[in-house]
Amino acid sequence: MSKMKPDKPNLDYLDLQQHPDEQVVIQMSLKELDLAMDFIPNGVDTTPSFDTAKVTLSPPSGNDHVESAQSERLIRHAAGAGHYRDVKKFVKTLHLAPEEQLFLMIEEGDLEGVKGILRAGSGVPLSFNEDGLNCWHLAAQSGRHLILGLLIEQTPPENLAPILERKSTQFPFRTALHYAAANVNSKVINLLVLHQTIEMLNAVDGDGNTGLMIACDRSSGGEQAVEILLQKGAAVSTQNGQGYNCLMIAASRGNVELVQRLLNPDVGTRYLSEKRLIGMTEPQRHQMFVNASADGTNETALYQAAAGDHWKVLKLLMSDRNIIVDARDWFDRTPLMIAAVKGNLKAVQILLMCHADVNLHDKSKRSSLHAAASLGRSKVLFELLMVDNLHLDGKDIKKDTALDIACQNGHSDAVRQILDSIKLRIERKLPNNEESRGSQMTGDKDIDKKKLRGACTHEGGRNCLHIAAFHGRAEVIQTLVGYRGLLDIDSRDGQRNTALLLAAEGGHTAAFKLLVQSGADMFLRNAEGYTCLHVAAKSGHDDLLRAFLIDEDGAEFLERALLEGEEPDRPTTPRLGTDWMPKDSSLGHTWNVVRLLLLEETGGELAYTPLHLAGMATEDREEGRKRKETPRLLMWSYLILALKVRGFSSQSFDLTRNDEFQSLVRDLLSAVNADGERLPLNADGTVIHPYRWIDRNADLGFSGSRRSGMGWSRCQ
Description:
Blueprint: H1 53-56, H2 64-80, H3 84-94, H4 98-108, H5 111-120, H6 135-142, H7 145-153, H8 157-165, H9 176-182, H10 186-193, H11 198-201, H12 211-216, H13 223-231, H14 246-252, H15 256-262, H16 265-274, H17 301-307, H18 311-318, H19 335-342, H20 345-353, H21 368-374, H22 378-385, H23 402-409, H24 412-428, H25 449-453, H26 464-470, H27 474-480, H28 499-506, H29 509-517, H30 532-539, H31 542-549, H32 552-563, H33 588-600, H34 610-617, H35 629-645, H36 659-668
């Protein structure tokens, strides 16, 4: 009977690149497939199975040509028979060195292949691969406990300890036990600990972690691996490079089961023994395992649980009667402070229930209330503000209260919460030194209201409204002006600045507008004698000045004719007043008069007007460039407002041919000339009023002949 050939697809070649992970292409002629039958055991004439071990594990024959031909025929036969996986595996190992074949088979868990290589003596178990791992490391990392057992079995006992002590040659420089602990493979760990001394068991890797620490570094699982290591005597007092021990690591990962196991008395006793405190009848609380702190940072397991909001772990730790609730880190922060900073609501609630001290502060004098207010943690603030003995007026190293910090950072909700609490405590006459969180909110006739109000206003007069205005926090100002009983909108700081003056000085348009709308006095002066318009002009805040002084009917003219130098269209019909009018002002005429008077106000020792200050400021610009926008803005604002007050606004400014108009302009127009020279002084040193200094014969730049319909031309 002739040999029967298996049915095969009509293909000229097999392309294994259809699997991108195998960058191999094998071309073969299926016509020569029958030649491979001679190399199959027993010469069967049905399609046999393909055993790569018979080729890859056989000792070298010394004849490379014969081995190459045999390999090629076997590949062809396997491919034709459909054993693509075996072909890939065989091709992958075909050109590898024996030790590389050994690494590959350990990774794939090929026990028989490893046996064959070890039996042939062609593999080197102690050599390292490109990742710095030897066979022992690789078997432990891959969880190949049978292969690891084979390696141990074939290694002389006297050589085991030195082999197991060897670390990987690349970071993190771990032993086989470290890799097994990382995978919490209890079978591999059991094999390894049987042949390790205590010193080997507690050896550390490049990060300073022992096998026990590595096993604890996971959010769940690992109980069996940790139990094995503890039973074999793994140290619990060792700290890694960050200063953390196994309990801190488990707490930071929120692993409830591991934390519960590590809180057992036997672990605490071992810790004291390792610290040589076992002879003490009653060790102090800070010496207990549960309160162990990291070297350098002083962070405890409780601190780690609070920072990560691992509330279940937090409850476990708090159940230990030796726990120190207010343990401090290197910056004197408590677990409550770090939980407040992180916004960990559950952690804050648990710590408060366990009587954590809310008034302790860190090295910057900031308390938990400061921490929550600085980041706008509204839910955490609610819990903190429920504590009766909370010090609302506590100040940090910069003399800022929690309310001040919330205003600086623009957290309007936090500001509202704190102000409501202050108001409530004043109304109910709550003492500021009640002893417990659950005490009833009953009155005391001798309440120190001044201390509560101190949370809003400081001794120098500076209050949270000044702070919000200085930083331009319009939303916060909108909240603050609603508390008229606690805050005066026109209150002054040590430099006699009001909130409106501070907003003007900083150029905070939105904050300035809100204060004006809320009825802030615009004519109040600071210590230098300047009004809000003086300080805005001196600082050159054109956006604020333009928004405050120019109404919609004059804005288009100002933008195109004055600043851009273009011929403007006819101005729109003016409206009386703007949305900037104070809430208690109902007439646009009154609003125009107020702004006109502010432009004419003089201040300082030399009786400067806003235009004087703006003119002088142009000489101080960087690189000597003289900026004229602010003086021109003030000139035209004064002109437009003066015309409106005198009734010209009803004519839409279409008055350029009017003699009365031309005369009025000469009387009203401002005083900085085209060269930006300083305003002239009288003989006695006082400044000539800027709205009176003008040559009555000067060309004002108005011409009715440039355009039909009488328009404006740019003032030179």
